[in-house]
Q: What sequence folds into this?
């Protein structure tokens, strides 16, 4: 197996483009273990976990989406899209407090984030809400 982290990084990028996310993650982690540039690798890890989260969400696996969006945040905590999408997943599984915190964090990172502002405006911590893709409904 090659010991140059760049080879694994490039192959991971190829796997990610082919939507073979688990193989991409494997190569990225191996590149990190080989001492590759951590900031570049962690950015790719976050993008891959975000893509997995979106895939889970679209398949209505909201628990899986929450996990993957959380992993994306672990690797790169400054992307507001990660938080707003984790908030959507959390609302689907009844984690209302976490969703509320994620929406506030989204606006901390990007005060002009219209989607998060609208979601937060409709948010009521005393009421359990679910986001249907177009609007909030009481559950």
A:
């Amino acid at each position: 197996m090659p010991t140059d982290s760049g080879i694994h990084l490039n192959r991971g990028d190829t796997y990610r483009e082919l939507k073979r996310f688990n193989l991409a993650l494997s190569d990225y982690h191996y590149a990190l273990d080989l001492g590759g540039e951590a900031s570049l690798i962690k950015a790719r890890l976050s993008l891959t976990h975000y893509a997995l989260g979106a895939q889970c969400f679209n398949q209505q696996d909201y628990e899986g989406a929450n996990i993957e969006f959380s992993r994306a945040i672990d690797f790169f905590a400054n992307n507001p899209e990660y938080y707003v999408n984790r908030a959507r997943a959390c609302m689907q599984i009844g984690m209302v407090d976490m969703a509320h915190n994620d929406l506030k964090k989204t606006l901390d990172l990007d005060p002009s984030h219209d989607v998060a502002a609208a979601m937060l405006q409709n948010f009521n911590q005393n009421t359990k809400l679910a986001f249907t893709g177009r609007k909030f409904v009481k559950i």
